[in-house]
Amino acid sequence: MLRTVKPRNARSKRALEAREAKEVEDVRTAIFVKGTHTGEILNGVMKELMALKRPDAISFSKKNTVHPFEDASSLEFWAGKNDASMFLVGQSTKKRPAGLIIARTFDSRLLDMCELGVDNFVSMAEFKTPKSTPGHKPMMHFASELFDTHPRFIQVKSLLMDFFNGEVIDSICLPGLEHVISVSIAPAPSLQTANPILGDSQEEDVKNLPKIHIRTYTVKLLPSGTRVPRVELTEMGPFLDLSLRRHQAADPEMWKAAMRRPKLKKQDLEKGLGKKKKNLEVDEMGDLRGRVHIAKQDLNKLQTRKMKGLKGMPVEQDGSSEESEQEDDPRQKKRKRD
């Protein structure tokens, strides 16, 4: 069961409401934590990844004795105190050198995490090319079918998407697409596919899994003579070669609560976002259009506006009736007497 915290006053109530789940989530804040032992390579990797994550990043300058796979209480405490949901923990030991742990929390509780080993690292400083502006949302590219079939790579894809994903936007401005992060997998023999991120009991040895390659490029838009510009990619860095190590899958109940979506409002249902209604559709411009079926109408019986100019001419009467009307007129009688 997930714990519930009751507010004591109005101020704490507003603070809790700001941290509640939302239909459109805020940007995930990541905390960078250094373990007791970190080498030069690991420090450089964390520094470069923090540069890509800014301004939604918090760095702990001091080293901390933290072991997420044995005890995650420290991560849960920092998550609730800093309103952060992502962690990047760097720890280097003799058994597992240059290790990066990407952890994710839900409701200030640890959801899942994965450990990656840094096999190769190329810094941004080695590329004498323009860099992207901090705070811009990157484009993500995953170049392998394993990211959709293998449980370990499905988890890595989900963690990287949440880590680098920025603010949710409604429209895209082409000049704002400054860099792309490409994630690929080295060639490997056919691997056994399994069900999603919750994991598989019969998991194969991680040593047989291929390495993950992360490459970062800047996007340059050039004129092409048409409305669609020509795109060129320039190496920006950092370049990372990672190998899979330990991992912890999400608890099924907590994962179900984290993936729960709120009910659609009445306005969203009317716009066609919910259950499809009969004879209602949303066009390409986002306008709701409906179709009404009516019976065949008789236009001769159609009620129109009553105007004198539209009235028909009176029916002509015969001459005898006209003479009788003239005789009955008193003015005509007076003229006859005169």
TrEMBL record:
GO molecular function: rRNA binding
InterPro entries registered for this protein in UniProt: Brix, Rpf2
Name of the molecule in the record: Ribosome production factor 2 homolog
Primary residence: nucleus
UniProt-listed PROSITE patterns: BRIX (PS50833)
Places the protein is found: Nucleus, Nucleolus
Region of interest (Disordered), ranges: 293-338
Pfam families in alphabetical order: Brix (PF04427)
Highest taxon listed in the record's lineage: Eukaryota
Family as reported in the entry's similarity comment: Belongs to the RPF2 family.
Residue ranges annotated for the Brix domain, each copy included: 28-253
Biased composition (Acidic residues): 319-328
Keywords: Nucleus
Biological process according to GO: maturation of LSU-rRNA from tricistronic rRNA transcript (SSU-rRNA, 5.8S rRNA, LSU-rRNA); ribosomal large subunit assembly
GO terms under cellular component: nucleolus
